[in-house]
Design a protein that fits this description.
Strand content: 25-35%
Bound molecules: N-[(3-hydroxypyridin-2-yl)carbonyl]glycine, fe (iii) ion
Number of domains: 1
CATH architecture: Sandwich
Structural class: mainly beta
Radius of gyration: 16 Å
Helix content: 10-25%
Oligomer: single chain
Largest sheet: 7 strands, antiparallel
Shape: globular
Amino acid sequence: MTADLFDSSSDVRPSRETMAEGAVLLRAFARPIERDLIAALRDIAAQAPFRHMVTPGGHQMSVAMTNCGNAGWVTDRSGYRYDAADPESGKPWPAMPSAFRALAGQAAAQGGFEGFAPDACLINRYQAGARMSLHQDKDERDFENPIVSVSLGLPAIFLFGGLKRADKPRRYRLEHGDVVVWGGPSRLFFHGVAPLGDGEHNLLGRQRINLTFRKAH
Ligand code: MD6
Ligand code: FE
């Protein structure tokens, strides 16, 4: 029984909440493998260090990023795109760990998307004050596949809007181990992350890490 894998404290019980048609929040879904995920993350960051990328408009992002998988999301003055190589090193991005791939597939299935096989995992690191302004994820080749997002470390307020930038976002507090799966009718909803508050997480310290799995190609 899955519940046996979790602590008895109320904040780590797995649960499922519908955010919109096609979007589901799986609380604490990643908790059973948190240590494997963090160990794999350290490995990835040793090969492809977190860096603050620059937007096409010339602004340095407050969130630091890296990637794993066959396709990595990058931005620079020339635009947003997926690239097989890390522009800092010229080498391919680190391979996607099997624990990452399995987690993404299982979460997607829980959200009603069977057979999700991501080729891209964008890894975002937030330290106090870092934020992500409202955006749509639309650099992927098609929007048939969902996106799976895994939150680790410090909690953050996730802003979840609608198809129009002006749609007032709802706020969700995403905590360590929470997984969001979204696709279908909400695949192109605007979303963002409010400035991260400071704090200390027992496994990750003063940061939040978010993994977003996509099928880019
Ligand atoms: C973050 N996430 O949570 C940023 N995009 O740090 C995203 O931008 C995102 O969580 C698409 C789907 C899920 C996400
Ligand atoms: Fe996004």
